[in-house]
Amino acid sequence: MKFSLFTGNCPEWTPAEVAKNAAAQGWDGLEWRIADQPEAETPSFWAGNRATFRLTGLEGNIGDVAGLPRAHGLALSGLAPYVPFADHQNAERVLKVAAETGAKRVRFTSPKPTDDVPFDTLWAKARADLQVLQEIARPLGAQVVIQIHHGNIVSTSSSARRLVDGLDPDVIAVMHDLGNTTIEGREGLLSLKMGLEILGPYLAHIHIKNAAWQQVGVDDDGAAQWKWSWATLRKGMGDVKAYFKALKAVGYDGWVTLEEFTTELPLYERLADDLAYLKAAAAAA
């Protein structure tokens, strides 16, 4: 099992600093955040993030995308450009970059439900888009990876398997995510292993973060109001130790990429602590 750092976790660091610090901490690889993000005077996870390559003009940064990790003995676990299935033009661009840099995998985003478009229409369009992306990615030797994500039409292992079933798992695959499934609700009680088994040959990558639900008030009629927020790996509702046991049970031994959107500890300290906890949980499994 190899441990990768999603660079979006590191808004204060430049790409060169990310590579240097990740290697010093003992990470095995990086997953670059790629986005045409809004600017911000103070770097944050979603705006002004310094550890991000712009989607516009990405091809001009191939040298750094591949070279910075390599210079520090790190591999590339994938690219994360937030490109939706339907954006075939940008999908092709990023898949070519993934193939050229050796990253191979590209994380794409599935549609969100909407009041304006029936679910079946969204689903049929997403499936058609994936068939297009399969034909783009196959000759490149690249892989389209769909992240299970709360709030999207692919929010559980069951929905992910339904969407990709019949496509080539070497080309169209799924990323399981502990934090996102904790927010959305798992397949059922104590079902981490079942969710991974549902994905079968389509399980290609793991993202790990954590979250927790908290009661934030009550309605006028006394009904409880609930809200989720990101939590550290140790404090969230997702059972990290059980997750690694489930991964072992299904024979998964690939990349595990950290997404860390909490700020309780200073950046360097929290990433080092996360890596130590991940390695301990994997060893215990």
Walkthrough of the structure:
The chain has 285 residues and is an alpha/beta fold. It has a single domain (2-284), classed as TIM Barrel, CATH 3.20.20.150. It contains 9 helices and 11 strands. An 8-stranded parallel β-barrel has the order 1-2-4-5-6-7-8-11, surrounded by 7 helices. A two-stranded antiparallel ribbon has the order 9-10. The termini are close together. The model has no long low-confidence stretch (mean pLDDT 96).
Topology at a glance:
Elements: E1 2-6, H1 15-25, E2 29-34, E3 52-53, H2 62-71, E4 75-84, H3 88-101, E5 105-109, H4 119-137, E6 143-147, H5 157-164, E7 172-177, H6 178-184, H7 192-199, E8 203-208, E9 210-218, E10 224-231, H8 240-249, E11 255-258, H9 267-284
**Average pLDDT, all residues:** 96
Q: Mind summarizing the main beta sheet? A: 8 strands, parallel, barrel
Count of individual domains: 1
Give the structural class: alpha/beta
How would you describe the shape? globular
**Would you identify the CATH architecture?**
Alpha-Beta Barrel
Q: Poorly predicted ranges (pLDDT <50, ≥5 residues)?
A: none
Helix content: 25-40%
CATH class: Alpha Beta
Q: Could you give the order of strands across the largest sheet? A: 1-2-4-5-6-7-8-11
Order of helices and strands: EHEEHEHEHEHEHHEEEHEH
Q: How far is it from the N-terminal to the C-terminal residue, by CA? A: 12 Å
- Residue share in β-strands: 15-25%
Q: CATH topology, what is it called?
A: TIM Barrel
Summed up, the helix count is 9
Radius of gyration: 18 Å
CATH homologous superfamily (4th level) name: Divalent-metal-dependent TIM barrel enzymes
> Count of DSSP E strands?
11
